[in-house]
Design a protein that fits this description.
The chain is α/β, with parallel strands linked by helices and about 425 residues long. The chain is about 30% helix and about 25% strand. The strands form six sheets. The chain has a four-stranded mixed sheet, covered by helices on one side. Strands 2-15-17-16 form a four-stranded mixed sheet. A four-stranded mixed sheet has the order 4-5-3-14, covered by helices on one side. A hairpin with a 2-residue loop joins strand 20 and strand 21. Helix 8 packs parallel to helix 12 and helix 11 packs parallel to helix 12. The longest helix has 14 residues. The termini are close together. It binds uridine-diphosphate-N-acetylglucosamine and phosphoenolpyruvate. Uridine-diphosphate-N-acetylglucosamine binds next to helix 1, helix 5 and helix 6. Its EC number is 2.5.1.7.
């Protein structure tokens, strides 16, 4: 298995280009199933999850071609299998996003239950309940969700909790339903808004994107469109935390500051100087050690769970004590045990981590357990004295495009060791 080797101690300096957002491109690729004409998507990041999604749509008969300008052309007209197999779904939970579009467009879907994962149990009951409310017949048998409907019908759906992919699945299904659907307690994440904008470009009628109530007036068909995926706010945040931890100065290009309010506020609280422009964010730490920050994760616009691990790493080397509370996933502190191997002082109490910053951590072999945990371990390696090797970096390749190249350009001593 490939590993990443980092020799710590170099402050990050320079400019880094941010890729398209993983959590926006995956639902957008799924939404192409709803159209009856080709859709072209630009700013598609080169990520393992994107490759898996292409494989998933490809085995359904959908045609996907990446042109030499890195634009993805998706032709849904050849789609003739409405099936998402366990082997693909288990490697990427976001595969569940084909459920809503398949039922809405083709009247049937068979999608493997994703099962739990390292960060929590992650059930999909809200996806199923939402589709049932739209009139689909849904059974779960032999590990598969089997759904059918002649034509979905609009309904008022109040989600029991804020769910990002749950909101996306129901919004996509409702786009082709007969009549109006109202989703209450909808997710407001920028990626949900990006999906809504893509659907609108395809002819959908959606109001309220970015608020907790979505109103979707179903239409008879969705047509082809061109759409550019929004920049990845979690990748952006990860590089900015790296600059803050190392006392450096980094400008993130092709970044959207308006999607990162809670994260930028915490970086300022940690002592960083932040300046922003229409498509860039610059963080300058002026060689100083960060101050510890307290964080509680929650759905957008609150602090994102997908940035929790990176701030845990920051607190490990900060001045003072930081308390981090994870409220979204029940098991998202596995990086804490690995950070302890580098000399971090972390005490776990239920869903809270109490972190006392240490002046120095020291390099060691450590192991990634999930996507953001692996990013946090790489960040920790940047400040640990000596060499750190991060094992199981396939997790990081799910969601970060060329992370070692991008960090290398910023001055980090980092390289991938082949398996
Ligand atoms: C591909 C994608 O966009 N992934 C993101 C998405 O995951 P995902 O959409 O899977 O996460 P959700 O927003 O659905 O999960 C939020 C909480 O709701 C629970 N829940 C969710 C659905 C359901 O039917 N029943 C249920 O109980 C989950 O277990 C979790 O505790 O949002 C998460 C929360 O911001 C992010 O960490 C992930 O990066
Ligand atoms: C948890 C994440 O992704 P996924 O929902 O695809 O597992 C993530 O992006 O941090």
């Amino acid at each position: 298995m490939a590993k990443i080797l980092i020799s710590g101690g170099e402050p990050l300096h320079g400019e880094v280009g941010i890729s398209g957002a993983k959590n926006a491109v995956l639902p957008i690729l799924a939404s192409c199933l709803l159209a009856d004409e080709p859709v072209a998507i630009s700013n598609v990041p080169h990520l393992h999850d994107v490759t898996t999604f292409i494989e998933l749509l490809g085995q359904m008969g959908t045609q996907l071609v990446l042109d030499d300008r890195m634009k993805m052309h998706v032709d849904p007209r050849t789609t003739d299998r409405h099936f998402a197999p366990y082997d693909l779904v288990r490697t990427m939970r976001a595969s569940i996003l084909v459920l809503g579009p398949l039922v809405a467009r083709f009247g049937e879907a068979e999608v493997s239950l994703p099962g739990g994962c390292a960060i929590g149990s992650r059930p999909v009951d809200q996806h199923i309940r939402g589709l049932q409310a739209l009139g689909a017949e849904v059974v779960v048998e032999n590990g598969y969700i089997k759904a059918r409907a002649k034509r979905l019908k609009g309904a008022r759906i109040s989600m029991d909790m804020v769910t990002v992919t749950g909101t996306e699945n129901i919004m996509m299904a409702a786009a082709l339903a007969q009549g109006t659907t109202i989703i209450e307690n909808a997710a407001q994440e920028p990626e949900v808004v990006d999906l809504a904008h893509c659907l609108i470009a395809m002819g959908a009628q959606i109001e309220g994107a970015g608020t907790s109530t979505l109103t979707i007036h179903g239409v008879e068909r969705l047509h082809g469109a061109e759409y550019e995926v929004l920049p990845d706010r979690i990748e952006t945040g990860t590089f900015l935390v790296g600059a803050a931890m190392t006392g450096g100065k980094v400008r993130a290009r092709n970044a959207r500051a308006d999607t990162l309010d809670a994260v930028l506020a915490k970086l300022e609280e940690a002592g960083a100087h932040i300046s922003t422009g229409p498509d860039w964010i610059e963080l300058d730490m002026r060689g100083r050690r960060p101050k510890a920050v307290n964080i509680t994760t929650a759905p957008y616009p609150a602090f994102p769970t997908d940035m929790q691990a990176q701030f845990t790493a920051l607190n490990c080397v900060a001045e003072g004590v930081g308390v981090i509370t994870e409220t979204v996933f029940e098991n998202r502190f596995m990086h804490a045990l690995e950070l302890q191997r580098l000399g971090a002082d972390i005490r776990l109490e239920g869903n809270t981590a109490i972190i006392k910053g240490v002046e120095k951590m020291s390099g060691a072999p450590i192991m990634a357990t999930d996507l953001r945990a692996s990013a946090c371990l790489v960040l920790a390696g940047l400040v640990a004295e000596g060499d750190t090797t991060v094992d199981r970096v396939y997790h990081i390749d799910r969601g970060y495009e060329n992370i070692e190249e991008k960090l290398g350009v910023l001055g980090a001593k980092i390289r991938r060791l082949p398996s």
